[in-house]
Design goal:
Blueprint (H helix, E strand, L loop, with lengths): L3 E3 L2 E3 L4 H9 L8 E4 H9 L10 E5 L4 H6 L4 E4 L7 E2 L12 E5 L8 E9 L12 E3 L7 E3 L4 E4 L3 E4 L1 H8 L5 H10 L5 H15 L4 H6 L9
Parallel strand pairs: 4-8
Antiparallel strand pairs: 1-2, 3-4, 5-6, 5-7, 7-8, 8-9, 9-10, 11-12
Helix pairs in contact: 2-4, 2-5, 4-6
């Protein structure tokens, strides 16, 4: 882990074990959560291979208030509008355009945990919004899959975002660390995961994304 200075204060990411303990506590009341970002790639690969300037946790928007319960007594700041930060009031439902929350134990403390919010929808009219079983990408509403399929479990146990979904988010404008994550994750991606990622990249970013060729041919092609 490395510290990073930002216009809104210093980042010193909490250890993975501490984050898992905080979000595994009963205060989350059954909300689903997953370690995301570079740590998710390392959990999928099974080894640490680079430094991290932050640590990300993904929740579905419907479960957003579980963040305040898990991090009770902390400060929570929402990226609203994106590119800046403002305090997130206790019990306040965040608007749909807010996907990013920074959290720290107190005003004199560094930022420790970053929370990302993703969408979910119901697959049938019999489901309520709170029971939606389909994950929907915040980047492209046409990229979706069952909520049950977006996570895996590491020893601990620590839930994490499966690498093909995390790499899809990293593919928008890959930085050197994203390229490193892609190279490390590529050998552990199953044929099914490669095909899903390649089709998601094609849908959102077009046929010529630089990662597509390295993923190999998608057997059966992608749905139009």
């Amino acid at each position: 882990m490395t510290g990073t200075d930002t216009p809104w204060g210093r980042w010193e990411p909490a250890p993975l074990s501490e984050v898992a303990d905080l979000f595994s506590a009963g205060t989350t009341r059954g909300a689903r959560w997953w370690i995301a970002g570079g740590y998710a790639i390392e959990l999928a690969v099974g080894r640490a291979f680079r430094d991290h300037g932050d640590i990300d946790v993904l929740l579905l928007r419907r479960d957003q208030l579980a963040v305040q319960r898990a991090l009770h007594g902390w400060q929570w700041w929402a990226a609203d509008p994106p590119g800046t930060l403002r305090p997130w009031a206790e019990g306040e439902p965040l608007p749909d355009h807010v996907h990013d929350i920074w959290c720290r134990p107190g005003p004199a403390e560094p930022w420790r945990i970053q929370v990302m919010l993703d969408e979910s929808e119901s697959e049938s009219e019999s489901e309520s919004e709170s029971d939606g079983t389909e994950w929907v990408s915040r980047r492209d509403s046409g990229v979706r899959r069952p909520v049950e399929s977006i996570g895996a479990q590491a020893p601990g146990p620590v839930p994490y975002l499966v690498p093909e979904v995390q790499l899809y988010y990293k593919a928008q404008d890959p930085r050197p660390k994203d390229e490193e994550d892609f190279a490390a994750a590529l050998p552990v991606l199953t044929a099914e995961a490669r095909r899903w990622l390649m089709c998601a990249l094609e849908r959102t970013y077009g046929r010529h994304h630089p990662w597509s060729r390295r993923l190999g041919a998608a057997r059966g092609g992608c749905a139009p």
